[in-house]
Design a protein that fits this description.
This protein has 134 residues and is mostly beta strands. The protein is built from no helices and 13 strands. It has one domain (17-129): Methylamine Dehydrogenase, Chain H (7 Propeller), CATH 2.130.10.10. The chain has strands at residues 2-3, 10-12, 20-25, 31-36, 41-45, 50-55, 62-67, 73-78, 82-87, 93-98, 104-109, 115-120, 125-129. It has a four-stranded antiparallel β-sheet with strand order 3-4-5-6, with no helix packed on it. A four-stranded antiparallel β-sheet has the order 7-8-9-10, with no helix packed on it. A hairpin with a 4-residue loop joins strand 12 (115-120) and strand 13 (125-129). The chain starts with a strand and ends in a 5-residue tail after the last strand.
Length: 134
Amino acid sequence: MVWDAASGQPVKTLAGTNKMNAATFSSDDAWLATAGWDGNVTVWDTSSWQVVRLMPGNGQIVTSIAFSPDDKLIASAGYDSTVKVWDTITGALVHTYSGHTGTIWDVGFSRNGKWIASASSDKTVKIWKAPRTD
């Protein structure tokens, strides 16, 4: 559900993702990415609240998503113990990072966009070199 913060009134119900676990805005607030139990990452246009991109997952629950600082990439992570990096514009899978042995609960980019951090139930935090976007 999208709410108007000033009035407290609902604006839009976002449908299509079964049990959403994660939501994050792009740096300019033009997009909202959501993910959940269906394993997909969905990108919404915040001016129309229409789906502009769907990154199909592998059926495993996604627990965390993050935009890169330049909004060109989205990282997703979850029950499959991998970090997937997607091209925001094309929806193409850019890279998959493997190495955790448990569910990944959080993923994020460094402020300069050069690194991705992931935190897992295997009691480790891993730092990955982010794919280049130039």
